[in-house]
């Protein structure tokens, strides 16, 4: 199993779990409301929960498909989270904030982006071939 697959399975499971737990706290919140409810320090709404489930499922599917697919998915997820984290910094407090992002969300998204891109862009170690 490659590092990219390990990352995909681990972070995929975390994102699926966060998506599921998020539904337990977002009762009474508008589906895409700009203000959600707190899950620890992070603000979520039902749409944000669905995004977590989709991202987690994508990471797990990539890991299950193999090292190359996992690397590609990790790169796409990392790039997307980098954009979401940067755009999210400007969305806090705006009516168009359909994911109910707050600053801790943005920091977590940027950290996830850094990790996912770091894993995806990491060169695989060279395999030593025995002397003949």
Walk me through this protein's architecture.
The protein has 132 residues and is mainly α. The chain has one domain (3-121). It is built from four helices and two strands. The chain has helices at residues 3-25, 46-65, 67-91, 103-121, and strands at 37-39, 42-44. The protein has a two-stranded antiparallel ribbon with strand order 1-2. Helix 1 packs antiparallel against helix 2, helix 1 crosses helix 3 and helix 3 (67-91) packs antiparallel against helix 4. The longest helix has 25 residues, at 67-91. It is elongated and about 70 Å long. It starts with a helix and ends in an 11-residue tail after the last helix. The mean pLDDT is 94.
Key features of this structure:
132 residues; mainly alpha; two-stranded antiparallel ribbon; 2 strands
